[in-house]
Write a structure and sequence with these properties.
Blueprint (H helix, E strand, L loop, with lengths): L6 E9 L3 H4 L2 H14 L6 E7 L5 E8 L2 E8 L4 E9 L4 H12 L3 E9 L5
Helix pairs in contact: 2-3
């Protein structure tokens, strides 16, 4: 049996985002599509959901070939999480930078790890 394919996995917490943006499903979908396509990644499928109310938010999931990109937002807290899993020939940091530009958080924390066989 062979080794599993290597993937880069970036995950982040974004704080202090405009609540109107966090509730804007169409804009969040557009931000993900733009970030992926500018880095040469074409989604296989994309789904999104909007949750109303005071604690509302949006979840967007882009399925990539053997990978994914996910954003979850919480309007009440001005907070979002981002999860980007891509093949090793792609740089998730560049995709993430485009999301940061689109969401304009006051601050964020990022982690990066490897999935599958590892970095080398």
């Amino acid at each position: 049996m062979g080794r599993p394919p290597a993937r880069r996995h970036l995950y982040a917490n974004l704080y202090g985002i405009d609540p109107r943006l966090l509730a804007d499903e169409e804009r969040l979908v557009g931000a993900i599509l733009e970030a992926l396509r500018r880095e040469g990644v074409e989604p296989v499928d994309l789904k999104s959901w909007s949750f109303g109310g005071k604690k509302g938010g949006v979840s967007v999931i882009a399925v990539l070939e053997g990978a994914h990109m996910v954003i979850h937002t919480w309007v009440e807290y001005g907070y979002a999480t981002v999860d980007i899993l891509v093949t090793v020939d792609r740089d998730p940091s560049r995709i993430f930078e485009r999301i940061v530009t689109a969401l304009n958080p006051r601050s964020y924390r990022v982690g990066l790890t490897y999935r599958g066989e590892g970095p080398g």
